[in-house]
Amino acid sequence: FDKFASAGPVLSIRVCRDMITRRSLGYAYINFQEPADAERALDTMKFDLLRGRRLRIIWSQRDPALRKSDVGYVFIKNLDKNIDNKSLYDTLSAASCVSK
Predict the structure, then answer these.
(1) Burial code of 27-54, b = ≥16 C-beta within 10 A, e = fewer?
(2) What is the CATH number of the domain that holds 74?
């Protein structure tokens, strides 16, 4: 909670869990009081470490119709072991392939 509160007032955090084991699924939804605070978290915390793991922060899209728009996600595999999240992001951003 404290990590994200540094971007602005947090209204709620929901950690998604397996329904049977109650173990974390590795992602959460965070609601900020102001959209500008969410934007700040997106801009300043991307690739920060949290408990030894890199954060991947994206906007949540609750509307199923909009999730099926022309925007999509790509899975990239077989990357060289020297490539980390930040270097891949920087490379794709330079080619205008990545949006916030």
Answers:
(1) eeebebeeeebbeebeeeebeeeeeeee
(2) 3.30.70.330
